[in-house]
Amino acid sequence: MRRLVGRGLQAFSAGLLSAALAACGGIVPSTGGPRPPQPSVEQPQLPPPPQNALLAGVRRGPPVTSLQMAPSDAAGALSSFRESCPRLIRRADVSALTKPDDWRQACTAAANWGAGSPAAFFVTFFETAQVSDGVAFTTGYYEPEIAGSRTRLAGHDVPVYALPRDLVRARPGDAPPLTDGRMPLGRYAPDGTFTAYYDRAQINAGALAGKGLEIAWVADPVEFFFLQVQGSGRLVAPDGTVTRIGYAGQNGLPYIGIGGVMRDRGLVGSGPGHYPASMQGIMRYLREHPAEGRALMDLNRSWVFFRVLTGDGPLGALNVPVRAGNSVAADPRFVPLGAPVWLDLDRREASGLWIAQDTGGAIKGANRFDTFWGAGDQARVTAGGMSGRGSALVLLPKGVLSRLGAR
């Protein structure tokens, strides 16, 4: 799942309480107006941030034997690592740390490990690496359950849309490329010009109505807003039928964390008269102030489209199931997707061994992670309050660091 704070399930986490975070870039119409004054003296230019782990700097970490892995933690991580292997041995690693063949020996062993100690598996096949300074910040996400149905029922009036066919990437020459070299997402107008896709306010106003894109209907627009932030979830119909929906795509417009906006406006916080700075507090404000809440949600122009999922799930960016307590979202430029990650945090429940199986629009940079906590009320509470700081190590197959010349 590709979360917008964090897939792709895109998490209510500290990211929603931070300032605006950009997810996928897109073409945003100009607001016009005069240009700001140009400086008469050339200003110093800051160097661009490193774009992969190798450029950020990699050094050898402590031996895996020094990591105090709990048996259940190692067992869960081994299971998730095994599920990632079919993708891991074929997927190009944009972090520039590994090659697909680097993982083959460990993946072969994982498939046949059997009753052996899970911790011994990681000791046998892996070494630790510190990327950049290793200083980690971790949030949490979960799979929400909200009232919804595959058919429109009384009280279920909020549409869940499939990915529209007219949402496309610009052809070269029709728009400037994004910073990563890809062409932006948008749509072609009837006159053939490329423009931004419909934003949240336009879609809520009916820009996609009547186009046959509705795959389900939900009861609460506030709950659905947060499900879109997560990137996937479960719809529970009045008869108890459960439909799982997952991330299918996004409209190409930037993600804005409304929690940061509400904090800056003094709507949430710790002072008297404020709504609590938590997911529950934000949702309460949105419901008790419907007009203002709608305007706040529309500030997040990003819109997520869904598909109905069958079988195991929810699925992460590797297109394998993410598992509660085992799967973590990371920036693939700094952590190979499928790699084990060791987190040592000031939040004990989030410390331990995880497998990087997902990505997120706000999960950007070295040592930025988003831990997955599953579904249900406890998962919601844990994810909503997760904000952990500490250190991170990436586990790489033995021999990789020597090839990279890491100290």
From TrEMBL:
Annotated SMART domains: MltA
Region of interest (Disordered), ranges: 29-52
Superkingdom of origin organism: Bacteria
Keywords, comma-separated and alphabetical: Cell wall biogenesis/degradation, Lyase, Signal
SUPFAM superfamilies found in the cross-reference section: Barwin-like endoglucanases
Residues annotated as domain Lytic transglycosylase MltA: 145-307
Organism ancestry: Bacteria, Pseudomonadati, Pseudomonadota, Alphaproteobacteria, Sphingomonadales
Presence of the UniProt keyword ATP-binding in the record: no
The protein's Enzyme Commission number: 4.2.2.n1
First and last residue of the signal peptide: 1-22
PANTHER family: MEMBRANE-BOUND LYTIC MUREIN TRANSGLYCOSYLASE A
Organism per entry: Novosphingobium panipatense
Ranges of compositional bias, category Pro residues: 34-51
Known catalytic reactions: Exolytic cleavage of the (1->4)-beta-glycosidic linkage between N-acetylmuramic acid (MurNAc) and N-acetylglucosamine (GlcNAc) residues in peptidoglycan, from either the reducing or the non-reducing ends of the peptidoglycan chains, with concomitant formation of a 1,6-anhydrobond in the MurNAc residue
InterPro entries given in the database record: 3D_dom, MltA, MltA_B, RlpA-like_sf
Enzyme class: lyase
Residues that span the membrane, as ranges: none
Protein name: peptidoglycan lytic exotransglycosylase
Cell wall biogenesis/degradation as UniProt keyword: yes
Any Pfam family hit: MltA
